[in-house]
Amino acid sequence: FHSFSSASLSSSLSVDDHGLQKQIDELSSFSDTPAPSVTRVLYTEKDVLARRYIKNLMGLSGLSVREDAVGNIFGRWDGSEPELAAVATGSHIDAIPFSGKYDGVVGVLGAIEAINVLKRSGFKPKRSLEVISFTSEEPTRFGISCLGSRLLTGSKALAEALKNTFDSQNVSFVEAARSAGYAKDQDDLSSVFLKNGSYSAFLELHIEQGPILEAEGLSIGIVTAIAAPASIKVDFEGNGGHAGAVLMPNRNDAGLAAAELALAVEKHVLESGSIDTVGTVGILDLHPGAINSIPSKSHLEIDTRDIDEERRNGVIEKIKQSAITIAKNRGVKLSEFNIINQDPPALSDKSVIEAMEAASKELNLTHKLMISRAYHDSLFMARISPMGMLFIPCYRGYSHKPEEYASIEDIANGVKVLALTLSKLSLS
Ligand code: HGY
Ligand code: MN
Ligand code: MN
Ligand code: MN
C-alpha cells in the first residue's frame, strides 16, 4: 500500500511553477499599499480577502478546511491512519506595512502546492497532512508577534491579555476579530489551544530573509535553531512647550530622551560581545508632532534578539537601566517600560533535520544547516511538536521591504523538498 520508496517519489515530483507564481501575484494584490509593496494587517478587509483566497485554494486541493476562534486556518488531507498524529506545515499571510510578497506567503501557498505535488505523484499519506495558515505572525496591529501560534501552543497569559488588548485606533482585539467573522460566541480563547502531541512534526518553508544562501549559491537552508526575540514598549513624558520661548536649561524634552535611548539600544547591542545580538527601534513617535512644539510625550518600540537568550536578557537589563538614567538626567517621566515578549530560542528536531537533508540529497539540491535570525510561527510550534524549517534564497536577503524577491525556481525547489519531507514523515 505504501509501496513508494522515497527515491522513486523524488523523481516524480512536479511543481506547477506558473500556477504558483500566479497565486503569489494574486495574493499580493490584497494589499492596503500600492504594488510592489504589500501591506496586509490582521483582520482588515484585505486580510479577510486573502484568507478567503487561501481557503478556496485549500478546497481546490481537496483539503478539508477549518478555522479556530482567532482565524488560524487548517487544511487537512486525511491519511490511511487518521487517528495517528498528523504532520503539519504552514506559515503566515499577513504582511507588515510596505513589505514584500514572499515573507510567509511562500510557506502557505508552497505548502498547498506541496500537497498538490504529492497528489499528482499518486502518493497516499499514512499520517494525515495538515496545512496551517497562522493568524497574524506579524506584531503590526496589536504589538504581539506570532499571535495565532502563541495561542495555538497554549499561552494562557495571551488568552487572558487579549480580553483587553486594543490597537492604535482603540479597537479591541475581540471587536476586530468579530469584524472578520471570528471570536463569535466565545470570549474564552483557550478553545484555540492545541492538545500536546497533535502533530508528529511541524515544518515551515520560508524565504531566508538573509543573504547567505544566495551568496553561497545554495538552493536550500535547513534551520537548526531560531533566534530568541524580545520586544519592549517605552513612553517618556515631559512638559513640552513653545520651541522659541522655552530656553534650553528649562526644558525636559521627551523627544530627546527617546532619541538618546535609541542610541543606547545600539550601544548596548554593539557591546554585547557577539555579532549575533541585534537591536532595532522601528517605531518612534513624538507628541504633539509639531515642528515648533517641544515633544511632551514620546513612544518608542524596541526589538532586540540574539541566538543566546542570556546575552539578550542582559542587553534588555542594560536598556532598562539606560531608560531610567536618561529620564532622571533629563527630568522626564519614564511612564512606561513594558516588555511585551521575551521569548526563548527554539531548536529544530534532529529527525526532522535528517528528513530534510535526505530529501534535499534525493533531489540533488545543494543545502546547508543554518540558524534563523528572523522569528517564525515555528518558534512556538516547537513547543508542542518536533519542528523543522526550510529556507530558500531571496534576493540579497531583502525582506520586510518591497524589493523582497525569490525566484520561482528557488520556490519550486523548496516546495519539492517540503513535499518529499512531508511524505517521509507521513509514512514514519
Ligand atoms: O520579524 C520577524 O522576524 C518576522 O519576520 N516577523
Ligand atoms: Mn516577517
Ligand atoms: Mn515570516
Ligand atoms: Mn538557486
UniProtKB/TrEMBL annotation:
Q: What protein name does the entry list? A: Ureidoglycolate hydrolase
Q: Which cofactor does it need?
A: Co(2+); Ni(2+); Mn(2+)
SUPFAM superfamilies (alphabetical):
Bacterial exopeptidase dimerisation domain, Zn-dependent exopeptidases
Reactions that this protein is recorded to catalyse? (S)-ureidoglycolate + H2O + 2 H(+) = glyoxylate + 2 NH4(+) + CO2
**Chief site of localization:** endoplasmic reticulum
Any one cellular-component term (Gene Ontology): endoplasmic reticulum
Q: Describe the family membership recorded for this protein in Swiss-Prot or TrEMBL.
A: Belongs to the peptidase M20 family.
Q: Which NCBIfam families does this entry report, sorted A to Z? A: hydantase (TIGR01879)
What the entry lists under PANTHER family is as follows: ALLANTOATE DEIMINASE-RELATED
Pfam families on file:
Peptidase_M20
Gene3D superfamilies given in the database record: 3.30.70.360, Zn peptidases
Biological process terms in GO annotation: allantoin catabolic process; purine nucleobase catabolic process; ureide catabolic process
Q: What pathway does this protein act in? A: Nitrogen metabolism; (S)-allantoin degradation; glyoxylate from (S)-ureidoglycolate: step 1/1
